[in-house]
Amino acid sequence: MKWMKYKWVYFLFSGLFIVVGIYSTVTLGFKIGVDFTGGAVISYQIKDQSKKEQIKTTLLEGKEKPRSVQETNNNLLVAKFAELTTEQRNEINTFLKEKNEGAFEEVKFETVGPSMGRELIIKTVIALVVSSSLILLWIAIQFKSVKFGVSAVLAMLHDTLILLGSASILGRFGMEVDYLFVTAMLTILSFSVHDTIVVYDRIREMGRGGDSESVADTAISGTMRRSINNSLTIIIMLVALVALGGESTKWFATILLIGTISGTYSSPFVAVHILVTWEKLLARHKK
Q: Which ranges carry the Protein export membrane protein SecD/SecF C-terminal domain (predicted)?
């Protein structure tokens, strides 16, 4: 199949999702978790399952309202607040006991300072920049051309923008940008670049003297089935986790699911098309 014939369709398709994501990010922003903003987290063990929803409702009705209340798989309710004093924490627990005496027990209380949140943001940005730079360098060395490395990193940027836009939109439904989101994003970027390298390797094997578009078409066709089969096994597992998993893992699995689909798409239809477009422009410039 002549995949390269439709390269501008792929670019427009990607551009549409990226523009929507950027618009959402600019207008709606993100729902930032306490990992980044700082705050307090109280974990409650539910002793009476029949009162679980009532406890969640009571938390949301209190004077100090939580930013979010999540349910874990081990019968815990995790309430995340802005910074709490000891007095405020005691008031929350007293208010809960008035309506739900004996139905719960506080098992954990922890605080995250704003300085820790800023430090985590800085470390996250550094990790992304360093990993992208090393990937660019490694691919450029392995394929003996910087255009392979730059094209792969641009495809990673594509996936990053898709994930950030998705996080902004999903924030309207309760998803927080926290350390689990960062973990999911780094995992997806490594998955995406691995798929890209597989296609690039096929292009390198076939590309001696051939037309770049024909070589790319053959390389994409030769790796498509393997890529789809690998991705489907992951997608099926993630769909099950989103549908059946607990509140604490739902958004993590959702971002992994979106990223897996985006990464599977971007390797043949973004990374390869950027590479071939680059080669065409270089050839035209030499003439």
A: 95-280
Q: What is the pTM of this model?
A: 0.85
Give tens-digit pLDDT for 8-43: 899 999 999 999 999 999 999 998 888 788 788 999
pLDDT in tens, 254-264: 999 999 999 99
Contacts of 269 (CB under 8 A, 6+ apart): 3, 10, 14
30 HSE (CA, 13 A, CB side):
16
Report pLDDT for 208.
60
CATH of 39-112, one of 3.30.70.3400, 3.30.450.40, 3.30.540.10, 3.30.1460.10: 3.30.70.3400
What are the structural domain ranges in the chain?
3-33+116-286, 39-112
49 against 151, higher pLDDT:
151
